[in-house]
Amino acid sequence: MAVNTKVSLKKRESELAAIAKQMEVLNGEPFSDGELPTFANKIKETNQFPLRPKKLEILQVNVGYMCNQVCAHCHVDAGPDRKEIMTRETMSQILDVIKTTGAHTLDLTGGAPEMNPNFRWFVEQASAAGIQDFIVRSNLTIIRANPKYYDLPDFFKKHNIHVVSSMPHWTRGKTDKQRGDGVFDKSIKALQELNERGYGMPGSDLKLDLVYNPSGAFLPGDQASMEKDFKAALLEDFNIQFHNLFAITNLPISRFLDYLVASENYEDYMYALVEAYNPTAVQNVMCTNTISVSWDGWLYDCDFNQMLDLKVNHKIKHIKDYQEDLLLDRNIVISQHCYGCTAGAGSSCQGTVA
Amino acid sequence: MQKTYYDPKDLKKFGKISEWNEQLGEKFFDYYGKVFEEGALTAREKSLIALAVSHAVQCPYCIDAYTGDGLQRGITKEEMMEAVHVAGAIRGGATLVHGVQMMNKVNKLEM
């Protein structure tokens, strides 16, 4: 029977929709038989175990798993059929934290964060709290998905939102294969609209960055070279400008893990990640300066751990009990998926780290 | 004893050739690394040349390596296939241009 890739793993009732099954894969061969070292053992080689947080810089809030797209590599398993959405009550608890946090960046993600019915209210409230860098991770197509979203570029501009958007390639074929039919054309239109408002233009304070994820079982190339190629192609073909390109490695969890296993690329991919292990990247992995909050208020070391339900290793586990100073005293929860953030020049939601 | 001449895992052991001749091995890998650095040609252009040459010399290790390298650099499959056709055209051309030698010989020998 053909697999319907237009819906989430959860909707498909796929075996790998179960977190326990994903952990079983990540803890199984080639790690369980000693062919490859576990991530814990690998960082022990350079005396970096246990991994500990440094100063909190980024508060990343996942406002829900609902999305208008079903991207093949999505680590959230997001899609139109996902109903997990952050309530206004949880948002209010986060707003209390934002007023006192030492973090300079608030990073809203999803799903498509704009689909949360309280998204605009939350942005207005959080923006008024005076956060220094306010990121919204927008999939771009949402701006063109429905007339009720058409004014999003103006809304972003009004609140000086830093827009970070996914764009796996400057060609239609590669983009649509990963993100769905028609995504490329809508993304181009959305980028042009953002440019028209001043987003991404040279010298503009309206920040527009793009995220590049490889469209398959391979690691990203050099971020600076990719940025150069992206900029040249988007400018020449569509007169589009943007500020920075973040090259992000696909982590072997959720839909990307499902793809790796189904295409029999899992073992080779894990070998590639381990071979590319860079101890310098470990020093700057994002979990050392980030707290991730789930749609229902639980706290995690990163968005990937959130999807594996690996909550912070601390007695404070929920936003309602949040105490920043106390949370700094914890060991970061790790597993084999962490190799994705330490391969080559490293990877984080802000791109390379080494 | 392995039953095939090629094993994909051997590509990862390429560096081991230095174990039996450290001086020449190191010189080769140093040279190899320098060749692929950005220069008058971009690293991207060099990757496509390497892919084409890999096909011309029919090296399965090289084809694996430079297909992966190309994907990492954002090189499209259309660009890769065009590069392979360049290799094919040169190989085909190299065969066919020898046809002139054959023609010369025939013309010389035939009455």
UniProtKB/TrEMBL annotation, chain A:
GO terms for molecular function: catalytic activity; iron-sulfur cluster binding; metal ion binding. It comes from the Bacteria. Coiled coil: none annotated. Keywords: Iron, Iron-sulfur, Metal-binding, S-adenosyl-L-methionine. Signal peptide: none annotated. Pfam families: DUF3641, Radical_SAM. Its cofactor is [4Fe-4S] cluster. This is Radical SAM. It comes from Nonlabens tegetincola.
From TrEMBL, chain B:
This is Carboxymuconolactone decarboxylase. PANTHER family: ALKYL HYDROPEROXIDE REDUCTASE AHPD, BLR3452 PROTEIN. It comes from Nonlabens tegetincola. The keyword Lyase applies. It is an enzyme of class 4 (lyase). Residues 23-102 form the Carboxymuconolactone decarboxylase-like domain. InterPro entries: AhpD-like (IPR029032), AhpD_core (IPR004675), AlkhydPrxdase/COmuclacdeCOase (IPR026445), CMD-like (IPR003779). SUPFAM superfamilies: AhpD-like. Its EC number is 4.1.1.44. Gene3D superfamilies: AhpD-like (1.20.1290.10). Keywords: Lyase. GO terms for molecular function: 4-carboxymuconolactone decarboxylase activity; peroxiredoxin activity. Signal peptide: none annotated.
